[in-house]
Write a structure and sequence with these properties.
Radius of gyration: 20 Å
Order of helices and strands: HHHHHHHHHH
Oligomer: single chain
Helix content: 55-70%
Structural class: mainly alpha
Shape: globular
Bound molecules: zinc ion
Distance between the termini: 48 Å
Largest sheet: none
Number of strands: 0
């Protein structure tokens, strides 16, 4: 690899980052299509993207990530209807997350495996935000891919190295246990809630999403994700609590907390949990 040229951050060749940002933006553009179409049950492959206002198909030069939106100043080239800043934002966010993964993990299998993981989390965040939906078309592939790549996934080492030291079988078991724990915790919570309050605490989507998070991050990752999601939830709920608008916090779907929490867990492993426990132990 050394003959390629200047080494960039974290040991990757500099050219790699240019390629990664480019691919991250283009894939981010596809994620926008997924966010928009999957909750509606539409195909993400065809037809081609069109302006939501006038229905004109978007030409290739109108579909360049971020740049097209900037050049057209956020309007459709045909009818001048405003196009949401969400589109370039999702593209830039995906590229940013991919670069963060590459820098954080360096040239490794982990970095490669986490690229699709963070992108699916990104889509889940926005489908839950827009429609209160965590579609099966996203959560099941997340779980299945997690289980398939388990033998190569060093992220499963976190928290209980003993299991993953068992080689391929150990890691597959670690992924399976993670998936079962993720699903199980939420199933139990939903069940208890139903029995005591006669209310549905959360949609089935949350359970299935945690199945995938568990398959990718293992049991340690599941626990860390749930801890971080509760912290995020508490922090974001505080202003509403203080102003007495408690009911508003119920409007926020739980997947919008789980997705960023799972993302942070993917980066930190159970270190985030240790840090949190350290704070509450020593203060
Ligand atoms: Zn238009």
């Amino acid at each position: 690899m050394t003959e390629i040229g200047v080494l960039g951050p974290a040991g990757w060749p500099m050219e790699f980052f240019i390629l990664l940002v480019f691919c991250g933006l283009v894939f981010g553009s596809f994620l926008n299509v997924c966010i928009y179409r999957i909750p509606l049950g539409k195909s993400v492959v065809s037809p081609r993207s069109a302006c939501p206002s006038c229905g004109t198909a978007i030409a290739w030069y109108g579909n360049v990530p971020v740049l097209s939106w900037l050049v057209l100043r956020g309007r459709c080239a045909h009818c001048r209807a405003p196009i949401s800043v969400r589109y370039p934002f999702v593209e830039a966010l995906n590229a940013g997350l991919w670069v963060a993964v590459a820098i954080w993990f360096g040239p490794s299998i982990t970095a490669l495996l986490l690229l699709p993981f963070v992108s699916i989390l990104l889509v889940l965040f926005f489908t839950d935000w827009d429609h209160h939906l965590l579609p099966d078309r996203l959560t099941f592939p997340l779980a299945i891919v997690g289980l398939i790549v388990a033998p190569f996934n060093p992220r499963l080492d976190f928290g209980y190295g003993i299991l993953s030291e068992g080689g391929t079988g150990g890691r597959m078991l670690a992924a399976l246990l993670g998936a079962v724990l993720g699903y199980g915790i939420f199933f139990t919570l939903a069940f208890v809630w139903k029995v005591f309050f006669d209310k549905d605490a959360m949609g089935g989507g949350d359970l299935k999403m945690m199945l995938g998070v568990g398959a990718f991050l293992g049991m340690g990752g599941v626990i860390t994700t749930i801890f971080l999601a509760s912290i995020l939830g508490t922090v974001l709920a505080l202003p509403f609590l203080l102003t007495g608008r408690w009911a508003m916090t119920r409007q926020l779907p739980f997947g919008c907390f789980l997705a960023p929490a799972a993302l942070i867990s993917a980066f930190t492993g159970i270190e985030a949990l240790r840090w949190y426990l350290g704070i509450i132990t020593y203060t």
